[in-house]
Hints:
The structure holds two protein chains of two kinds. Chain A has helices spanning 5-14, 24-38, 73-78; strands spanning 83-84, 87-88. Chain A is mainly alpha-helical. Chain A has a two-stranded antiparallel sheet with strand order 1-2. By secondary structure, chain B is of the alpha/beta class. Chain B has a domain at 6-256 and 440-448 and 460-477: Amidase signature (AS) enzymes (Alpha-Beta Complex), CATH 3.90.1300. Chain B has helices at residues 6-14, 20-38, 46-61, 103-110, 153-160, 177-182, 217-227, 245-248, 271-286, 302-317, 336-347, 350-363, 369-389, 415-419, 426-431, 459-472; strands at 41-44, 72-76, 114-119, 166-170, 186-189, 210-214, 257-261, 290-294, 395-399, 435-443, 446-453. In chain B, a hairpin with a 2-residue loop joins strand 10 and strand 11 (446-453). Chain B is globular and about 65 Å long. The mean pLDDT of chain B is 97. At the A-B interface, helix 1, helix 2 and helix 3 of A face helix 10, helix 11, helix 12, helix 13 and helix 14 of B.
Amino acid sequence: MALERSDVEKIAHLARLGLNEADLPRTTDALNSILGLVDLMQAVDTTGIEPLAHPLEASQRLRADIVTERNNREAYQAIAPAVENGLYLVPKVIE
Amino acid sequence: MHQLTLAEIARGLADKKFSSEELTRVLLARIAQLDPQLNSFISVTEELAIAQARAADARRAAGETGALLGAPLAHKDLFCTQGVRTSCGSKMLDNFKAPYDATVVARLAAAGAVSLGKTNMDEFAMGSANESSYYGAVKNPWNLEHVPGGSSGGSAAAVAARLLPAATGTDTGGSIRQPAALTNLTGLKPTYGRVSRWGMIAYASSLDQGGPLARTAEDCALLLQGMAGFDPQDSTSIDEPVPDYSALLNGSIEGLRIGLPKEYFGAGLDPRIAELIHQSVKELEKLGAVIKEISLPNMQHAIPAYYVIAPAEASSNLSRFDGVRFGYRCENPKDLTDLYERSRAEGFGAEVQRRIMVGAYALSAGYYDAYYLQAQKIRRLIKNDFMAAFNDVDVILGPTTPNPAWKIGAKNNDPVAAYLEDVYTITANLAGLPGLSMPAGFVEGLPVGVQLLAPYFQEGRLLNVAHRYQQVTDWHTRAPAGF
Lengths: 95, 483
């Protein structure tokens, strides 16, 4: 099933990627080419096969519920694009 | 001095033939002189390197010993280094000075290794040619018109050109083994969970694994020793004891059963590479190895499954780059959506955007079962193939790549053509197995690699076979002209 230009616009929005109008045809072609490769896997019979999420089938390790992180707020805010009074600044969301 | 391997450097430092600072200055001068041809470094941290070398010399003068104490190396630019730009090859992180060290960086620094800088790479480790870096393509020192492989292409080019004895890399679909093959190096992708991923910027979290690139198996053993081991900060790190890899190098391989998967020698493999691989098999037979033909029938499905799993995980991992807390932010966003969409469209390159979109599509409502779940089922089939094969053989051997290094730009217009170059390496990532590539000869002056795969946590066996092979061959000692 080939993607249309409108599908690519929808995917780009899901991924929060603001594509240029001019790039859309090329991006659509590239994605269709990749999905063409990926679709080869639809022919594989996987009836009764359990999906493998972790190569060693390990599950998430648990630890005691105690604070282990140090407070690095200043170091993290020092590399932020815009901060004020310890807060991250973004464009106004609520009018 | 620049020709020395890590093992030779360790002996030279121990015998007081030279200091770490002297060696570090020689290599920094070489980088300044020769790297403009290669573009293998994104950042050279000269002052830090001198400071680390002096500290290592002081520790040694105080009686401390250690194979990596004072040893120069560099990190692929996706290992976070505190206070130093960690760009991941992307405009998105061009201004990112990591606020902490990756576990790999911290462990090697604690062992006394001297980091000369951060090496170039495909953007977010997505690529097999090192052409997608925001900082420009890396050149292969064996032929400056050709790619060095990727995504750890900067690490590979720098070590191959004798700018460094060794460097760290990461391997998600072949990104250590393939550039090692294309630049005449030895490179090892450890078992998934063997090396901590903490502070290693994620591409595909269930596949990514850090490892060493060096000129010999002996050096890979030394560097892996400094990298491997349990890390409580990485929730996928495996708590298994780490053997003494150097002690395993010299073991006899008499009677070792080596499997040659027939699928690795089929259509698509350059016959000149096939010939070199068969020659390497003959050398191993002379050392006592027993050769068996085996089959990995699901190998052909690995690339399609990989190009669902890796992009799906990437689309999730890379959602954190939103222009809010760190990294690139677009100019004058008009609202929050514009901030996200333009920061990401301007900050990420074309290949990264393609993979994010493939992943977002594969994970979107209505497609999850057909894509992500089907890919994970194929992943189990591939693992099952290996488990069955390892009932009969100790090691699996084949080519690392189907072709030698291609010309820069030759595959730029067709992402799928470049994806197919990873056909022999991707299976080990999907199954989580350790894999090693080592030099096996040349085709038209370009290096060829032979790949070895072993059962989980058998990195020592891979290094043993490679070391024994390197005792009776000299491919790995060849240096590119001009370097």
